Structures are given as structure tokens and as C-alpha cells.
Amino acid sequence: MPDPENPISLLENLLKFPGRVVHELHQTRAAILTAWLLIFGIVGVAIYGIVVGAQSGGAQLWIAPAKLGLGTLLSVLICLPSLYIFACLGGIDAQLRSVCGALFAAVCLSSILLIGFAPVAWIFSQSTDSIVFMGTLHLLFWLIRIRFGLRAAHHRSIENISANGKEIFSDELV
Amino acid sequence: MIKHLKTLVRGEVDARCLEKPNVRWFLGYCVAIVLGSSVYGATVGLWRAPLQSIFTAIKFPLLIFLTCIGNGAVNGMLAQVLGSGLSFRQTAFAILMSFAVASLILGGFSPITLFILYNAPPLASEHAIIGHSVMLLAHVCVIAFAGVMANRRLFGLLRKMSGHDTTARAVLFSWLAGNLFLGAQLAWNLRPFIGSPQLAVLHHRFHQDSQSSLAIISFSSRCRTRKIQSACWKTC
């Protein structure tokens, strides 16, 4: 089980066993875990933002990470209520806390993957001046990370199958 | 160590060697990559000029190591997310193993490519373009063969480690996609390898044209067929 006091073990568990992290979100120290997930999610996206900003350099080096981090936070806040409502409409007896945790886990997992893609994106950003090409490349990495981020959300839905016999569609997270 | 490398090339490596990665084996793989790919790299550049062969002998292992380092993080994450059960260290070890196999095969092919080079029209002859094409084709075939064999060995190892064909295949293809993607770009940055008969011998041409290889092929409006051929000719 991931230890909320040890963020590194949390990341390791999120990569290897997302189901365990989702299970832990139902436990007593879920608030700390959820906070860590959100922090890692935002920081991961911001780190990738530095690579995005390195293409143009200058002020973009801090503007791009700030915008990506804030954009991610805003997206999460905007989508959270509708996700919760859709989960309830789907017949799941879910608590806002656990839906929140599952969403943050998905964002966190996808952000960690973005950090993995950062060196590759940096090499390409230093090799080309084509904004169109780099934009498409970032979009491709973004789609891959969303695909894997949804796996974490899927584990959440699997947990609900056993509990309620129904499944929340991962597409709702998109 | 040689015994272990022989086992590796035969594809009989036990899954235990990934469970407990050994520093001696790690150094052995690095030495195998440096020796095998340097010797082969020297034969790649030799057709153009002896100086080009030295540059290519240095750049070939450099390309392999830079690809491993650049993709290290994402390969480790993908292996874990896809459920192979491999850690970051084990992932790096497995990829290094497959590159070591490829390098050993390439090293073994060096005398053959040297023989082809001996028989190909030299740079000074009026059939220099044919010589360049023959060398290019031979190297593409040899590198493709080494790559296929190395990936077959890697697939076997991943199957032993994960216990599932589907997982092993998913991990292998995700690694392959990443390594091909970054490797192609790094090869472009480190060009030339064979060396164009029309251009002077250089250790790199990165600053002469700051376009990405993939950007040129996919997006640049200047990429008409004739220009792609010209770019490819200069790259090689």
C-alpha cells in the first residue's frame, strides 16, 4: 500500500499498481494522498512546460509552465462537478472525496509520463524551428499521457463494478 | 563475461539476470556496444575517407548511448504502466542488453561490409554514386538484420519477465516506437555517417541546417520530392 508520508512510494505505486492508490483513497489518510497527487500533477505539467517554453526561450521559460500548471488546475476544477454528477447518474454511490482522488490520480499519472517525455521533447525543440511540428509533437505526447492517465481512472471504475455492479465510463473524465 | 555475452546472443539469458542486475554485466554491455558499434561505424565511414571513418566510429556508439539516456525515463515509466513489473534499472538493463546484441552482430558483420567496400566503386571513380548507393543499401540491410535479431532476443526476455505475451509485446512496441522516434532525430543531429561524395568530411553538420529530420519530412512546405531526395543524399 502507498504510504501517504512517502511521496516517492506513492509515485512508484501509481505507475505500477494504480489500483492500490485508488483503494488507499478510501482510507483515513486520503486527504494527504489526494493533496500529494494534485501537487505532483501540477508540478509535472509545469516541468514539461519549461521544455515547451525552451522552444522560444526568454520569458516563455516561465510563462509556459505557469500557464500549463494553471490550465491543468482550472480544467480539473471545472470538470470535477460534472464528473461527480455523471458518476452519480451512472448509478455509483461515490463520495466526492473518492471521485476527486481518482481524478487527481489520473492527472498525476499523466503528468509523470510527461516528465518522461520531456527529454525527448527537449531534443526535438532544440533541433527544429518549426512551431507546427513541435505543436503536433506536444499534442501527440499529450494524447499518449491522457491514454495512460485514464487507466488510473479505469481502476477506479473497476473498484465500483465490484461494489455496485456498474461502471463509470472513463470517457467522462475527458 | 564473454560466456555471458555468448548466452545473451544465443537468447538463453535467464530472467534472473534482470532480477539482480550486476555492475560487471552492465560494464560488459557498455564495452560490447562501444567495441561492436565503433568497429562497424568505422567501416561505414571508410568509403568516404579515413577521417570520416574515425568520426563515424565515435558517433555510432554515441548515438546508441544518447538514445538510451534520452528515452530512459519514458521507457521505464511505460514498462511499469503497461504492467511488465520491470523497475527503471531493469528497464535500462534490458534495453542495454538488446543494444549490446545488436552491436555484437554489427561487429561480426564488419569484415563483410569491409569486403563490400573493397569491391564497391571508390570515391574517385566515375561510378562513385553507384558505390555510395551500394554501401548505403548494404548498411541498411545489415543494421536492419541486427535490429530485428536484437529485438527478438529482447522480446524473449520480456516474455520471461512478464509471463504474458501480450504485455511483453506491448512493452516491446512502446520501447521500439520511442527509440526509433528519438534515435532517428539524434541520427539526424549527428549526421553525416557515410558521408556524401559531394561534401567535405565533417564531424557534424548540425548547425548548417537547423531543421528536424521529421519536421522536414512531415511539415516543411519546402519538402517537395526533389528536395527530400537532396536532403537524404546530403544526410547520408
Key terms:
heterodimer, A: 174 residues, mainly alpha, 79% helix, 0% strand, elongated, disordered C terminus, B: 236 residues
What would a concise description of this structure say?
The complex is a heterodimer of chains A (174) and B (236). Chain A is an all-alpha fold. Chain A is 79% helix and 0% strand.
Task: Characterise this structure.
- By secondary structure, chain A is mainly α.
- Chain A is built from 6 helices and no strands.
- Chain B has one domain (2-235).
- Chain B has helices at 2-10, 16-19, 23-45, 50-81, 88-119, 128-162, 165-189, 213-218, 225-235.
- Mean pLDDT of chain B is 83; it is low at 219-229.
- Chain A binds chain B through residues 12, 15-16, 109, 112-113, 115-120, 123-124, 127-130, 132-133, 136, 148, 151, and chain B through 69-71, 73-78, 80-81, 83, 85, 178, 181-182, 185-186, 188-189, 206, 210-212, 214-215, 218-220.
Topology (elements, then pairings):
The complex is a heterodimer of chains A (174) and B (236).
Chain A: H1 7-16, H2 18-24, H3 30-54, H4 60-89, H5 96-127, H6 131-164
Helix pairs in contact in A: 1-2, 2-6, 3-4, 3-5, 4-5, 5-6
Chain B: H1 2-10, H2 16-19, H3 23-45, H4 50-81, H5 88-119, H6 128-162, H7 165-189, H8 213-218, H9 225-235
Q: Which two chains have the most extensive interface, and how many residues on each? A: A-B, 23 and 29 residues
- Arithmetic mean pLDDT of chain A: 81
Oligomer state of the chains in this structure: heterodimer
The sequence of SSEs of chain A as H and E is HHHHHH
Strand content of chain A: under 5%
Q: Strand content of the residues of chain B, in percent?
A: under 5%
Strand segment tally of chain B: 0
Question: Radius of gyration of chain B over alpha carbons?
Answer: 19 Å
- The value of Rg of chain A in angstroms is 17 Å
C-alpha end-to-end distance of chain A:
28 Å
Any idea how many domains of chain A?
1
Shape of chain A: elongated
The CA-CA distance between the termini of chain B, in Å, is: 36 Å
Structural class of chain A: mainly alpha
Q: How would a crystallographer describe the biggest sheet of chain A?
A: none
Summarize the amount of helix of chain A as a percent range: over 70%
**SSE order of chain B, one letter for each helix or strand:** HHHHHHHHH
